[in-house]
Amino acid sequence: SLLALILAAAAPGLADDNARSVSTLEFKNKFRESGIVPEVIAALDPAVSFYVTYRAADGHSELLVPGSSLTVGETAQPLEFSVENLQNATNITAQTRYLIYLLDADAPARSNPTARNLRYFLAGNYSAATANSTVLSTAQRLVIPAGQARPFTSFIQPAPTANSGVHRFIYALYTQPARFSSTGFESVGMEEAIENWNLSRWRTQLGLGPAIGATFFTVDTGANNGQGTS
Ligand SMILES: *[C@@H]1O[C@H](CO)[C@@H](O)[C@H](O)[C@H]1NC(C)=O
Ligand SMILES: *[C@@H]1O[C@H](CO)[C@@H](O)[C@H](O)[C@H]1NC(C)=O
Ligand SMILES: *[C@@H]1O[C@H](CO)[C@@H](O)[C@H](O)[C@H]1NC(C)=O
Ligand SMILES: *[C@@H]1O[C@H](CO)[C@@H](O)[C@H](O)[C@H]1NC(C)=O
Ligand SMILES: *[C@@H]1O[C@H](CO)[C@@H](O)[C@H](O)[C@H]1NC(C)=O
């Protein structure tokens, strides 16, 4: 309603009240439609619905749904990670930990992605919380206990060059092999370089199965003086 819109606009920080669940099939289809599968990731058959929330230009917390179009400003620090259907992933227990990354598949430019994949974030040791998402009440939060966050790649806000095409940014979620509950990814030789990150080589290096969930957003660097559209 109009009143709700006015109230929402007047109170930055409120949660997105249009947030809805996305089925795993819809995630799978969107990854195909975007060309990410098979161009960037050979296959994606998500067991869980994986969500990220972000601060929208109007100040609200919004749920990222696969294919959301963001402004560069809206790509700032993710606010929250959450999942639905976690029990549908194989081999999950209460002790299971998870790792999450963010990458740009189209760096430095969609037409000539010589830095593919460019990693903007990688961190392990997430676990499923009893608390649910503040934006989507049916999704369980993924958290790192306070003071224990030690990302392998600390979050870097994307800054794609103006007029370098429509960039596809991918967040993915994996179950973390047990050894990494007590040791970092560098212990298996993972390197810090963020450019030209080879995902298939990395999965073999860490002993990972396929991603259990993934989502993505785009930034249209040709729109709004390179700032994208929301
Ligand atoms: C859970 O996994 C099974 C087997 O892959 C699948 O048939 C089912 O649709 C999944 N359920 C959900 C809610 O995704
Ligand atoms: C499940 O976990 C056990 C013990 O960690 C492991 O040996 C097995 O390979 C895992 N199975 C799958 C399908 O990941
Ligand atoms: C919290 O999330 C879990 C897991 O997705 C779900 O089973 C439960 O119903 C949610 N709780 C509420 C109050 O929606
Ligand atoms: C997980 O946490 C433990 C204990 O703090 C730490 O030793 C380990 O390196 C962490 N693993 C990852 C992948 O961050
Ligand atoms: C990524 O690594 C795999 C396995 O090591 C290799 O076959 C493939 O050619 C690499 N891809 C790129 C783009 O370098």
TrEMBL record:
InterPro entries reported in the protein's UniProt record: PEBP-like_sf, PEBP_euk
PANTHER family linked to this entry: PEBP-LIKE PROTEIN, PHOSPHATIDYLETHANOLAMINE-BINDING PROTEIN
Signal peptide: 1-15
Keywords assigned: Signal
Keyword Transferase recorded: no
SUPFAM superfamilies in the record: PEBP-like
Segments traversing the membrane: none
Protein name: Phosphatidylethanolamine-binding protein
Organism encoding this protein: Lasiosphaeria ovina
